[in-house]
Amino acid sequence: MKLNHINLVVSNVADAIIIFETYFNFKCTDIKGDNIVAVLKGADDFTLVIMKNKDGQVNYPDAFHIGFMLDDTNSVTETYEKLKSGGVAVGQEPRKIRDSFGFYFTYDNVMIEVGHYLNEIE
After folding, report:
1. SS3 for 118?
2. Which CATH topology does 1-53 take?
3. Lesser CB count within 10 Å: N end or C end of the chain?
4. What are phi and psi of 110, to 5 degrees?
């Protein structure tokens, strides 16, 4: 069994498309209405659906987040620097977190983790 899609609610679909295309290698394949719903494709044919909440509010439970696990620690640092130089508020620099090296940041009330699982060799 494979998880093949997730639907995230955001306050600004057009801005979210830019974030996910620019920093996380998604490609927008469809936009419905006036940026009400967008369908993005990622690695392994994963589908990310982004939609605007009707009342404009975006609320997720505490600790809810999505994660992008990268191939190495250099990729984590490069992603952090790219986000930061692009004006995205990323907060703390990447660091060791439990069994990974990474960082968390919040975009439009969605907590996003970017990391790399450490192994014995690193």
Report:
1. coil
2. 2,3-Dihydroxybiphenyl 1,2-Dioxygenase; domain 1 (3.10.180)
3. N
4. -100, 115
